[in-house]
Amino acid sequence: MPQLRKDPILGRWVIISTERAKRPEDFSKPISNPPEKECPFCEGRENLTPGEIFSIKDSQGKWRVRVVSAKKPFLQKEGQLWKKGKGPYDLINGVGSHEIIIETPYHIANIADLDESQIKDVLSTYCIRFREIEKDPLIKYVLIFKNYGWGAGGGTVRHARSQLIATPVNLKRVKEELEGAKFYYDYHERCVFCDIIQQELSDGSRVVLENDNFVVLVPFAPRFPFEVWILPKKHSPDFYKICDGNVLELAKILKQTLLKMKILLNDPHYNYIIHTAPFRRPYPGYWSTIEEDYHWHIEITPHLTRVAGFEWGSGFYICPALPEETAKFLREKNV
Amino acid sequence: MPQLRKDPILGRWVIISTERAKRPEDFSKPISNPPEKECPFCEGRENLTPGEIFSIKDSQGKWRVRVVSAKKPFLQKEGQLWKKGKGPYDLINGVGSHEIIIETPYHIANIADLDESQIKDVLSTYCIRFREIEKDPLIKYVLIFKNYGWGAGGGTVRHARSQLIATPVNLKRVKEELEGAKFYYDYHERCVFCDIIQQELSDGSRVVLENDNFVVLVPFAPRFPFEVWILPKKHSPDFYKICDGNVLELAKILKQTLLKMKILLNDPHYNYIIHTAPFRRPYPGYWSTIEEDYHWHIEITPHLTRVAGFEWGSGFYICPALPEETAKFLREKNV
Question: How large is the ipTM?
Fold first, then answer.
């Protein structure tokens, strides 16, 4: 059973993944790029994945998007949640869930290469899973993310998929963002993300793409070269409450953004993460303005530099590219 | 001139490194491992580095440890500090300093391979630079770290060296650690690090090495496999106030730890970072208990897994190794 352990200084929860644990000896073997295995995510090989949780089917009854449990889950569904202390330490057993969202029945690696209606189905699937998992009172947060390419933690099978982790605790990163947004709101009585959007649209130098309801920009203080954020122009804390009419527009701008990265940056490995408010807003007073102060968005980080080491451990970032230049490059080059 | 830009949501400062900035086009080239260049850090090539700031010499007047300015500094010494706002954004020009501590005149890559008295001189040099830079009222924090191997951001020249960055702002990571330590102290009226040391020494399962004044342990909730911390047993917030008598003991245990990693884990790339309290303790009341609540230490993180991507962007860590097993492995295998 995996464990969630809390760092007693920073209050950061870490998953100790027993299902994926390697023996200490195994870490001394050099890291190699193993050959691609038979793809378990392709149409016709449904028996190679654990039980199906959800699917979207076409008019012939064939699946278009399919959600399954992870084979080696970070967190497990079974069992009662327990919380324990030991001296200065806190731990929780790894109850929660870990799902894989298979984005296409075909063996296509990059979501950027799917057509817009297929990407729309993927995004709709995210929303449907959010709504379903919200019903479980044990779950505090749902994190949806994509690891594309092994450099981004994506494994060796090149079939487009995203991951969903439902956790019984609120993640430190999420708390920090909520607290930061609230801190700004308490002073200005405006959403910091709304202010950023307004500033960026009037300034223009860091805008990459724009349509009626969404804007894509390079943030003012990016951690990584070519980091981009996709934000809805209309204020909303919850990704999964996006109205149906806007999902296709989001799919279009996501595809355009990722396609620009793929073509202009030589198919980089990347991650994207959906940043959305937690379901439970448990501390009256504390997160009481969350409806007004938090604004969902998607953060995309391509992996273009080797210099990961120091930033990894320190949380201190040095970005070797000017945000205005990377934005201009992505904005002006057509693909 | 480099810039320091603040993320308006998280309050995290990012260095936009103009000295090292690449053109957007250059990021699309595949990352390759360029051949080692002529080493500018070896004895006899002193003219290849910018001006010497400090050195420790032997009785014949030959240098043993040498501190120079970085050729492409993240932050620059020249110029007045200015702070500006633009809409929701804050920026500071990149005033500060960036120094390279050359740890040996010989072409040796890993500090683990230097002898103990040489490592002692390196650690003493850190302390001397801390004390000197403390005098500059513009500087809020000094970060000393090592990137060993390109996987850890160490560049292509394989000559043992560390880096020092002096910043005009307090780093978010440092603030978080200070706040976490204070939060624990406010409740318990005890230092969280002292409590951790006591817990670990009585439990024993995560202890790697120990001598009279220091303990090396795998933390309870590590971010990475084989992450280890070196802590002084006696409470002290400031690394650079370590008494001379203890520097050799620290050098010995640092060498032993890194040598175990080198031999048992196949010479992994790694980072270490000195975690110490800031010089200025500016907010009366706010950090007023820092003398009692904060405890300097060194964090070492080897790079043994490819799965960096997701953790990189999310601040949410999944560790595929049991801390008790990695500690046992490092503790029991002799090198």
Answer: 0.88
